[in-house]
Design brief:
By secondary structure, the protein is α+β, with helices and mostly antiparallel strands. The chain contains twelve helices and 38 strands. The strands form seven sheets. Strands 13, 15, 19, 20, 22, 23, 25 and 26 form an eight-stranded mixed sheet that branches. The chain has a seven-stranded mixed sheet with strand order 18-17-16-21-14-12-24. Strand 33 (659-662) and strand 34 form a beta hairpin. The longest helix has 24 residues, at 2-25. The protein is elongated.
Length: 737
């Protein structure tokens, strides 16, 4: 193909030069294109070269170019003459059939790969060309670039703001600009969707006939003549990757389904000219190949060397076709790797899912340094591949998990006169596997211990990687508690002790393989002592059932199902107080057996308690479990063990800023705001069951109050400190009974 283009380029240049001489000596070919016209030279050159028909004497330069006319101009611009036009028995398009004047030029354009006709939304060819439809500037630009075989330019930054990376015409426009074939409508706009006038088409075509690919000399110098003499392929070898039974997902492009290596012997370089690809249907249920695929391509290492529409493999040729390769040279004693890729339709029929096809390379045609051309069967085993849904082929998954950044259960200081903002209730992660995933909605479950959620929280916010993506306000169905100064997406119904808080307008992209961290953050109302009271706890979870209800799509736009939505994450309870005790472990708890292999150990734990916000009060250290009206300040329990162990009454040693009080019946302790007292707790564990067990001690509860009226008010609040700070545990030791 490269040599053919060099030949026709030379032919065109001669024709153009002769045209320039003729056009200055004789009258113009068209009465409506005077010599003073800026398009005169281009139009006359094309007329002399046979690209334009001069019979009517009128050019109609301001009229729009039709698609069939553009196909003919692009073909003739390559140097081909009408006598060599293709004239197949079977038409490529339903709307371009004999005896239509454009039948042969359109068929020739098809054979040269310049045009392929219209496609539907899935990318499948419809079989229609639209010969009399108006041709746009962008489409004719592509025709010329393809006709000339120019290497496609793909710069990081484009020339025009209306044709940017990702636009189908980007590389064609940038290539045409690089070779001087076309200019923009303005300095910043290309205007690719505008109808192309015949004047503009003539100007582009005239410039195209003067183009020689900039890298052609470099390619020829690189390829050069094949070195060596009579040579042969030392070995064909099927590559292990891609593996057999490769899955091709719907909408995926250029999925490798077969790879093999070619090793040239020591005598000559080899030029691989063509391959015969033979697709065979699987055992059952398969329909025509174009039902599954849109394109087939061949690659030499990472360079594309051939591409064709999938419908070129059809019943008429038994799904087998010889494919010409561009520029594949395997140097002497080197190994080249060839790959065949398949692009799948984007809307695979459910009847076709899991259907298999076999691919075999039944012929390789190559030339050695002596110019001998050999065709041979490489005798490779066929590769089997299947067409699957996108998620199946790529094992698509959106996986949720808890994060180490989730705050432990703790007391959060709140206020009775103003809101407390930015309280993190939970932190988790989302990981996209096998595909980019767009998350649209996530339902979180919110639990409150005593007060209605809408009375505790004024605003819920979801952050993704530290960026706020949506904010909502809970409601009981009225607007009496809404913060009107906050702009929110919508108001959520979140009254009562339980609700589902759904963030549902996210449109958040997680790229394949990436993990994003999310946080559920709240602004907390001020305490009022009635609807929002001290000691209320909030917990947020993303349960497995909640993950099943996540609204997310893969990169093809398909919704992920429960199978692809996995994992969960759970936040720890956050307790809200204005006046409370802050508890701190001092040193490291110990658990020491009296002697080796003993049935008794001694446990020591030191705890510091500080009054925060106001004075606090604690009952005396009654060792009785909580029952009736007996409320000890601390409750200890056994950790692990077999159930046959006993714990002795703990001994408390006190120090710090506190006062011992008595209400006339019971002893208690008063701790003024900001003051601290330290308790050293000592107890023993005895293994009483004649068994061997591993056991320790944990602090399970602390009771305190802000009113010292009686033992009930001094134990108004009970916090599960084992949940808040799990370090309030002694080590485990083994006791032998």
């Amino acid at each position: 193909m490269r040599n053919f283009r060099k030949m026709i380029a030379a032919f065109s240049m001669v024709a153009i030069l002769s045209t320039l001489v003729v056009s200055t000596a004789f009258a113009g070919s068209f009465t409506d294109v005077p010599e003073t016209s800026g398009y005169y030279t281009a139009v006359e050159a094309l007329a002399a070269d046979g690209v334009l028909d001069t019979k009517s004497g009128l050019f109609n330069g301001t009229g729009s170019l039709k698609r069939a006319q553009g196909a003919k101009m692009a073909v003739l611009a390559t140097g081909m003459v009408e006598a060599d036009f293709e004239n197949p028995v079977v038409a490529s398009f339903k709307d371009v059939v004999k005896p239509y004047w454009g039948y042969e030029p359109v068929e020739t354009a098809v054979s040269l790969g310049i045009v392929s006709g219209y496609s539907d939304l899935s990318g499948k060819l419809t079989g229609y060309f639209g010969p009399d439809d108006t041709l746009t500037k962008a489409h004719y630009t592509k025709m010329l670039v393809v006709a000339l075989g120019l290497p496609l330019e793909n710069p990081a930054v484009g020339s025009f703001s209306d044709v940017v990376k990702g636009n189908w015409a980007y590389t064609y426009v940038e290539t045409a600009v690089a070779h001087g074939l076309v200019s923009g409508a303005t300095t910043t706009l290309f205007g690719g969707s505008t109808p192309l006038t015949r004047f503009a088409a003539a100007d582009m075509t005239y410039k195209a006939m003067n183009v020689t690919p900039a890298d052609e000399d470099e390619e020829e110098e690189e390829d050069g003549e094949l070195e060596g003499g009579s040579g042969e392929v030392e070995e064909y070898k099927l590559l292990s990757s891609p593996a057999n039974l490769r899955k091709v997902g719907e909408g995926e492009e250029d999925v490798k389904v077969m790879g093999f290596s070619v090793e040239a012997d020591e005598n000559s370089d080899l030029k691989i000219q063509s391959l015969k690809l033979d697709f065979d249907k699987g055992a059952v249920g398969n329909r025509d190949f174009h039902r599954y695929a849109t394109e087939v391509a061949v690659w030499y290492d990472d360079e594309e060397v051939a591409r064709m529409d999938a419908d070129e493999f059809n019943k008429d040729n038994a799904y087998a076709k010889t494919v010409s390769l561009d520029g594949v040279i395997v140097r002497s004693e080197e190994i080249g790797k060839l790959y065949v890729t398949v692009s799948a339709v984007s809307n695979l029929d459910s009847l076709d899912v899991t259907d298999t096809w076999d691919l075999d390379v039944t012929s390789v045609r190559w030339m050695d340094g002596d110019g001998a051309i050999i065709s041979e069967d490489p005798l490779l085993a066929a590769r089997t591949f299947s067409f699957e849904s996108f998620v199946t082929a790529n094992n698509v998954e959106l996986k949720a998990a808890s994060s180490t950044g989730t705050p432990k259960s703790q007391i959060v200081a709140v206020n009775s006169t103003k809101e407390t903002t930015g309280v993190v209730l939970m932190e988790g992660t989302f990981k996209a596997i096998g595909s980019d995933v767009t998350i649209d909605a996530v339902p979180f479950t919110v639990y409150s211990s005593t007060d209605d959620i809408d009375d505790v929280v004024s605003v819920f916010t979801l952050l993704m990687d530290g960026e706020e993506v949506e904010t909502k306000q809970p409601s009981d169905g009225t607007d009496d508690n809404l913060d009107t100064t906050v702009t929110v997406v919508e108001v959520a119904d979140c009254a009562g002790l339980y609700c589902t808080m759904t963030f549902d307008d996210l449109d958040y992209l997680v790229e394949a393989g990436d993990t994003v961290t999310y946080q559920v953050v709240v602004d907390v109302n001020e305490l009022d002592g009635v609807t929002f009271t001290e000691g209320n706890g909030l917990t947020v979870k993303l349960t497995s059932a909640g993950m099943d209800a996540v609204d997310a799509q893969d990169s093809t736009g398909e919704d992920l199902t429960a199978t692809e939505l996995t994992g969960s994450s759970t936040g720890k309870t956050q307790y809200f107080f204005e006046n409370y005790v802050d508890v701190e472990l001092v040193g490291t708890p110990t658990n020491t057996p009296v002697v080796d292999n003993a049935d008794v150990s001694t446990v020591t734990m030191k705890v510091k308690v500080t009054a925060v916000g106001d004075d606090v009060f604690l009952n005396a250290f009654d060792t009785t479990n909580v029952s009736g009206t007996a409320y000890p300040a601390f409750v200890l329990g056994l950790l692990a063990g077999s159930g046959n162990e006993t714990m002795a009454d703990p001994v408390f040693t006190l120090s710090g800023d506190y006062s011992s009080e008595n209400d006339g019946t019971d002893d208690y302790y008063a701790l003024r705001e900001g003051d601290s007292m330290t308790f050293t707790i000592t107890t023993t564990i005895t293994q009483a069951g004649g068994e061997t067990s591993t056991v320790g001690v944990e602090m399970t509860d602390i009771y305190f109050g802000t009113d010292d009226t009686d033992e009930d008010t001094r134990a108004e609040f009970n916090i599960d400190w084992n949940d808040i700070l799990d370090q309030f545990e002694s080590p485990l030791v083994t006791l032998v009974g």
